[in-house]
Amino acid sequence: FYERRPSVWVEPLGDWGEGAVQLVEIPTDAEIHDNIVAYWVAAKPVRGGDRLDYRYRLYWTKDAPFLPQTGRVVASRRGRGGRPAEVDKLGLVKYAIDFEGGDLATFESGDPIEPVVSVSRGEVLHPYALRVNTTQKWRVIFDLKADGTEPVDMRVYLRKKTGEPLTETWLAQHLPGG
Length: 178
Prior knowledge:
- This protein is mostly beta strands.
- It has strands spanning about 5-15, 20-25, 35-40, 55-60, 70-80, 90-100, 115-120, 125-130, 140-145, 150-160, 170-175.
């Protein structure tokens, strides 16, 4: 039941200076091993004798302690591409990403909302967005045709047709043949 474990959110306090959070996935041979870590990397190299002071607050929680003002990703799925009930012979993979929150509940299918889907290589086919029946969620669906064996970086979000983003950006990697 690892999905029931709390997450830890780190809130930096004070001035940490320039730098970035680095996310690392450690290879593992069993799903029971925690294999995702993140750490702070200062832009200025650390030298022997340097004093580093970092203050932070930890939040141990099931849900994000601070929800964004935009819609957020709540689920993503992948499956056989092409049309339903038809065996795909084109090598397509279908992706479905659900977003919820922000102003999304105020829109209905047919309103001026569009999916923005970009991939590092390959071809995106038939992207569309719709409101999920009887919910306040929106779903983006598209087929990906990725030739070759190299990973494909994917980005998806919803925006108003005027260009204003409505959701955070979903990031994922497609591994052909996987």
